[in-house]
Design goal:
Pfam families: Trp_halogenase. InterPro entries: FAD/NAD-bd_sf, Flavin-dep_Halogenase_NPB, Flavin_halogenase, Trp_halogen. The chain is of the alpha+beta class. It has three domains: about 220 residues, FAD/NAD(P)-binding domain, CATH 3.50.50; about 150 residues, no CATH class; about 70 residues, no CATH class. The protein is built from 15 helices and 21 strands. The strands form five sheets. It has a seven-stranded mixed β-sheet. A six-stranded mixed β-sheet has the order 7-2-1-11-20-19. A three-stranded antiparallel β-sheet has the order 8-9-10. A hairpin with a 2-residue loop joins strand 19 and strand 20. Bound molecules: flavin-adenine dinucleotide (FAD).
Amino acid sequence: MNQPDQQRVVIAGGGTAGWMAAAAISRLLHGRVEVTLVESSDIGTVGVGEATIPTLLFFHKLLKIDEQAFMAATNATFKLGINFENWRSLNHAYLHAFGATGKDCWAAGFQHFWRRGLDLGLSEDFGQYCLERVAAEAEKFAHLPGNGLNYAFHIDATRYAGFLRELAGQAGVTRIDATIERVNVREQDGFIESLTLDNGQTLSGDLFIDCTGFRGLLIEKALHTGYEDWSQWLLCDSAVAMQTESVEAPLPYTRCIAREAGWQWRIPLQSRVGNGLVYCSNYLSDERATEILQQNINGNPLNSPRVIKFRPGRRLKQWNRNCVAIGLSSGFIEPLESTSIHLIQQGIVRLLRMFPHEGIEQAVVDEYNKQTVFEMERIRDFIILHYKVTERTDSPFWQHCKQMDVPDSLAQRLALFEKTGQIHRENNELFDDSWQQVMIGQGMVPKGYHPIADTMTERELADFLGHIKHNIHQTVARLPLHQQYLNSYCR
Ligand code: FAD
């Protein structure tokens, strides 16, 4: 029963976004809000979204989620990074791992010392100085004390939504299985008043969370919020996905294999593999994309290939009036660095911090939108980097990517790193060490380095680099194989 001072929160949509929001809000604002979620089993969910990044661990900590229970429920494996194959050039690969590379000295980043070592013939491949990268390549994993090994998960997205649904149910969320037929908007202020469902029910609320996926039923179809299109930089607008049975031990990393007009993912779960091809429809038809995917899978298919269309970009406002868009309804940056679930979680945590207990304040709404846009644009730039910095010219798609103009914010970062080896840093950015891993991995080696690296003698520099590498390899030698660890941890 709704108490008089309880806010009525209505969540429209029950995919990953809807159930993450329902679980978090009901558990953390328990007793202060009444949460109802409406989802349509006739419509279903997007059904993809299986690779995550380490920030998910914070979300789980906040919700007091037991990791072993979560892994068992979602068929999960551990993920230490992403292997980018054929991105810089055909037959070249580098692994973008979750950890930091080398050891920072307070005055200059490790990359400056590594860069000088290159000139002197002392440095090895940049990734050899990153623990997570070496562990991933050795297919090893274990929890190390003090978060010694940064990790995330590969999960079954459908099962994850089911797992969160259970938690949300225990925390009092009411679930309605029905299709929303109409969104009723108040005339005087344009706020959403209620949703009319196909079962005849009318669902009223104070705050509405739009988790209806690409449809954006509330935020766009009802409130006409508008969309900023990023397709001049992010060319891919389609994906084809299918699952296969496992034929080998699951790797502790995602594979991202560049193809003639896009890229293919392979996400290993405990008992199956998620596969897909993300592509640009200007350069590749759906039929040809499906053929390429089918030619490049291992193991028997478990379902038929499914084509998904999308438009890269962001909603102009993620919070508009009394509606907050979370998930695909808020915008979409392609899944190359597995950032969508992270953005969902960020949206939820931000909303919790700014929750309108006393009614909606425009200043709060503006701040929410400002922070969200900041975050999305930084991720957008990071994704564009992978396409722009390449040596590939073997297809019209890659020629276009190599030559295209990029946002000024990215152009400045690239110039700074290329000329000086310095990394542009802003507060609260998701990616940090990742920038240099990817820039170097894609073939951009800084022309210069910080002169502080010259204060070491050659002998000292060789020892410095050698010790880091030695310690990493010693640690990795003691780790069990990922499969072995999964067998004992996920029993
Ligand atoms: P959906 O899953 O589409 O859910 C929408 C919900 O709204 C459903 O429950 C539906 O029934 C309901 N709904 C819609 N209309 C109505 C209506 N009229 N009435 C009632 N209910 C309605 N993210 C990652 O983090 N990692 C990845 O590896 C990754 N890979 C991806 C690959 C591809 C090709 C794509 C397209 C996305 C990927 N994503 C990934 C993003 C990820 O899939 C989504 O962010 C995540 O699944 C959340 O989706 P959602 O809940 O917003 O939408």
